[in-house]
């Protein structure tokens, strides 16, 4: 269940509440009766680095044969050079 943060417009207190996503947002401060508005908090979920999905799940390493198949072929520079003479 996510934790939502609310700030009271009257007393300035910040209230944390464990709520389901379907629960209606809180509207009244339990300390002073003031109006609450929801705060946007930083997420604790971070994706760092390159290729996290490969390193975290132990993907198979690419063999030399696989690398050759997936690499683009080099084009020859001698194509149609005789016809220009």
Features:
85 residues; alpha+beta; 3-stranded antiparallel β-sheet; 14% helix; elongated
Structural commentary:
The protein has 85 residues and is of the alpha+beta class. It has a domain at 3-38. Helix content is 14%, strand content 16%. It contains 2 helices and 3 strands; from the N terminus they run βββαα. It has helices at 52-56, 64-70; strands at residues 3-8, 14-18, 36-38. It has a 3-stranded antiparallel β-sheet, with no helix packed on it. A hairpin with a 5-residue loop joins strand 1 (3-8) and strand 2 (14-18). The model has no long low-confidence stretch (mean pLDDT 74).
Q: How does the overall form come out from the CA principal axes?
A: elongated
User: On the 0-100 scale, what is the average pLDDT?
Assistant: 74
Strand percent estimate:
15-25%
Kindly name the structural category: alpha+beta
User: How large is the count of helical segments?
Assistant: 2
Terminal Cα separation, in Å? Answer: 75 Å
Largest sheet: 3 strands, antiparallel
